[in-house]
Write a structure and sequence with these properties.
heterodimer; A: alpha+beta; Uridine Diphospho-n-acetylenolpyruvylglucosamine Reductase, domain 2; Uridine Diphospho-n-acetylenolpyruvylglucosamine Reductase, domain 3; Enolase-like, domain 1; 3 domains; four-stranded antiparallel sheet; 26% strand; B: alpha+beta; Ubiquitin-like (UB roll); DNA polymerase, domain 1; five-stranded mixed sheet; 6 helices; 5 strands; binds flavin-adenine dinucleotide; binds FE2/S2 (inorganic) cluster
Chain lengths: 293, 161
Amino acid sequence: MKAAAFAYARATSVVNALELLAAHGDKAKVLSGGQSLMPAMNLRLLSPDLLVDIGGLAELQGVAVKGGTLVIGALTRHVDLLRSAEVALHAPLLREAAAHIAHPAIRNRGTLGGSLAHADPASELPACIAVLDATIVVRAPSGERRIAATEFFKGIYETALLPQELLVAVEMPARGKGSAFFFQEYARRHGDYAIAGLAARATIDDGRFSDLRLGFFAVGDRPLLAAAASKLTNVSVTPTVLADAAATLVDELDPQGDQQASPAMRRHLAQVLLRRCVAALLARPDLETGAAQ
Amino acid sequence: MIAPMPVSLLINGEPMDAVVLPRLSLADFLRENLKLTGTHVGCEHGVCGACTIRVDGEIVRSCLMLAVQAHGASIETIEGLSDSGEVADLQAAFRQRNALQCGYCTPGMLITAQDLLKQSPVPDRAAIRQHLSGNYCRCTGYQAIVDAVEATAKARAGRSA
Ligand SMILES: Cc1cc2nc3c(=O)[nH]c(=O)nc-3n(C[C@H](O)[C@H](O)[C@H](O)COP(=O)(O)OP(=O)(O)OC[C@H]3O[C@@H](n4cnc5c(N)ncnc54)[C@H](O)[C@@H]3O)c2cc1C
Ligand code: FES
Ligand code: FES
């Protein structure tokens, strides 16, 4: 189908975009890469009166390290995450995740800001930025506010963003090589939205996790930072410890069923991902099979 | 304004001015206004890949881009790639290997395959499948398409060696 009629404004600056959003309230929609908004409009799930196209705003582009912080502009495209040297050094998790997002033609236009604002629970990037302790920088006519990634996602397609606000950047600690990462997802075909996925960051000392953040996606209404991680931290991980953590994980999850997978299948896959992640990060292949139930 | 807006862009190297409604997709602009019907429209939500074109040298879905967003951009369609001879060998390999039947997916397949071959001259079959993963073909079963892309890659590598 085709989108219903709408008016279009090419924003000339962030300030101009904010003025347009303030003037039109929730009848306006921000247009970044259009890779989620245009499908929704073509399917007539959405029909805004006005599109505010921020796609040309240089202010929202670019990846930079400032002090100890990695700053990624909202308009950074998925393909830019794949190519950026700063991302490869300080947040390789984002690079790994971006390779799983859709297909090349979509990665050439889809943006980080758009993916976070869209907040599809099956998306890779929201879980990654929660795992990376990121802060989301949001601009309103009244000024800027910073929202912790863990506070930003409120439900399916729901975030802490207000209609008159613009997501301008994402900031996270620039870690260099201090952390280990794991990323894996199940999808029926490369590039499809995940059926279940896990993004993780760990600090490992002497074969133990001194810090572990497990970000599951597609298994709830928003990315889940699993409390099960605490069962694996500062202990020597045995098959029993891992089985206990997997049981905790199952209790935390509240997955939806859809045509791709039942809630039971998603719970199962999340446990498999947990075992694979721990085995891979600790370089203990025995744990992947050893803890199987 | 919901009213038509002016756009200036390059289409296959030719400068062009037009006045279009904001809701007009780039795919429909190419097909309906410019009669460049090699760009096909299947799903109109980014899933099938039939509408794949090049914008400023990068492949994109023309069903998910508005004509007004293409203001100032350089657009290349299958007609451009075909007329310039850029994909002549790929087209010949598709024909030879029966990598097309109805041809609906073919323009998108060719543009996407050419994009891969520019970035990675001798991709293996897994890399070819991955790059083409966003392009549906309902006829061939993909095997012959992967064969044609692989054969073209090898032939090009041989020529440049
Ligand atoms: C076939 C297909 C497969 C896909 N597969 C995946 C996948 O596997 N994983 C995945 O994560 N994504 C997938 N996507 C979606 C893709 O990643 C999108 O790029 C992303 O979800 C949205 O980014 P965008 O820049 O295109 O945003 P847009 O589509 O432009 O906008 C999306 C929403 O966010 C709002 N918005 C955008 N930018 C801002 C901003 N700066 N401030 C405030 N609000 C803003 C818009 O108003 C809109 O509501 C897929 C898309 C397609 C078409
Ligand atoms: S018509 Fe554009 S992807 Fe199907
Ligand atoms: S040849 Fe018919 S869809 Fe591919």
